[in-house]
Amino acid sequence: MKISNVRTRVFEWKGHTVPPTAHFCSNAMDELWDKGDSMGTFRFHGWTTVEIETDTGLVGLGNVALAPRIAKAIIDQYLAPLVIGQDPFDYEYLWQRMYRSTHAWGRKGIGMAAISGVDIAIWDIMGKAVGQPVFKLLGGRTKEKIPCYASKLYRTDLKSMQEEAQSYLDQGFTAMKMRFGYGPKDGPTGMRANLDSVAAVREVIGEDVDLMLECYMGWNLEYTKRMLPKLERFQPRWLEEPVLADDIDGYAELNRLTSIPISGGEHEFTHYGFRQLLEKRAVSVVQYDTNRVGGITAARKINAIAESFSVPVIPHAGQMHNYHLTMATLASPMAEFFPVHDVEIGNELFYYLFEGDPEPVDGFLDLDDETPGLGLTLNERYFDQFHITE
Ligand SMILES: O=C(O)[C@H](O)[C@H](O)[C@@H](O)CO
Ligand SMILES: [Mg+2]
């Protein structure tokens, strides 16, 4: 079998979107005086699909969510020529070929995200070729079902957040993640607002539901050191991305500071990047996203490294490209799940673009033993809601 063609398309949502609101989610732009719509550069309203065809008629489907237009250009110009004519089962060789040939600029960030999209499509092909779901190629069914946590609760008014948290309880979730809306520039009143939002959610969900707290790179080391002791009474499952992804020593200092586990990794790349995070004990939860980190080929290596450090892997985003890895390793105890709703931040756009992702039932997801490959197809019902660039 040989790869005969690589087709990339950029899907940019032109349908209804929920307008941004102030303090929606703390983020890396908040430190700037002219931050404007600070989440503007962190919306996922576009996605790149990667369809890799073989000379035997199979089509593998991959995806990239970061900088979709750039990802398409990288795949079209640099990566497609490296894999066309090759055997997809030589996936490690093909990964090294893509990694090494773009090493000067592609080992982190959008270069590695583009490699991820190609790699995911290659694994979809391999599963389809042998008639097995991808997780069966990675280690098989290590769980009867995958526990998952509801992930939204962006900062709005406290009553709306309490109603949203209650809705996840009503759906049977026993874990959920909320976002902070304030950071260092908002001073003591912002701290109070942050603490009040956690108290409000805890008031609804009680003490026996896991609550994760998301800073999305919007705090800094000094502010987080002040916040952590104040947050301990809420017993969060983890505090996520309090500092910039490059501040690995800051992560490590925070992770040693209190009983609250620090999580991160959705903005880290390759098994080399995660070796650094783990050797420095910088995170207590590894959160790569397979469509960024280097695809399934890199993610499975990270799973093994994390397992050797006894650090759990709970990938960013849920979504099929991550679920197969979580199913195939005991090192990954659960998955993130983005509730489906109107397009807002854009994490939920995945459901408008693809069909096949499992629906959670009582806080659990399952994958089908009989569906070969990743189990995803493009959702053509919404194509008219997208501007599509071939
Ligand atoms: O952990 C997450 O889910 C990510 O940080 C979100 O996708 C991001 O959009 C901010 O909430
Ligand atoms: Mg996050």
UniProtKB/TrEMBL annotation:
GO biological process, one term: carbohydrate catabolic process
Catalytic EC class: lyase
Enzyme Commission number, as recorded: 4.2.1.90
Domain (Mandelate racemase/muconate lactonizing enzyme C-terminal): residue spans on this chain: 158-261
Family: Belongs to the mandelate racemase/muconate lactonizing enzyme family. RhamD subfamily.
Subunit annotation: Homooctamer; tetramer of dimers.
Name of the featured protein: L-rhamnonate dehydratase
